[in-house]
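thread: overnight batch results

M.L. [08:02]
morning all. the overnight job finished for the chain we discussed friday. pasting input first so we're all looking at the same thing
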Amino acid sequence: MNEIYILDACALIALLSKETGYKNVEKIIEKSENKKTKIIMHTVNVLEVYYHIYKLYDENSALNFLNEIKDSPIQLRVEVTDDIIINAGKLKKKLILHGLGSGWILIIIPKRFSHAK
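M.L. [08:03]
and the structure it wrote out:
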């Protein structure tokens, strides 16, 4: 496994709506099909996308999305460990300090992401 990507809701919404940056997300999903790249998305973010689709379209469209994401190469995570919380907080602080917003986060994390400082 060479790379791990973490998708947030905004990244997936950008892909589904073909918003700015969607081609980056598309490329990452294509890379994951070779099994050298792993994509992780937390179920809380899936809920946000589900709600977004439900609000814009209807319940059937949202349910279709939910079924499609389960069949995609994106691995859904349910648990949130202290390590994830601590490292996500450090990374968010670092991104904001460099003038990057936290709303559109699509990040590459090295194998050992616990060294984010």
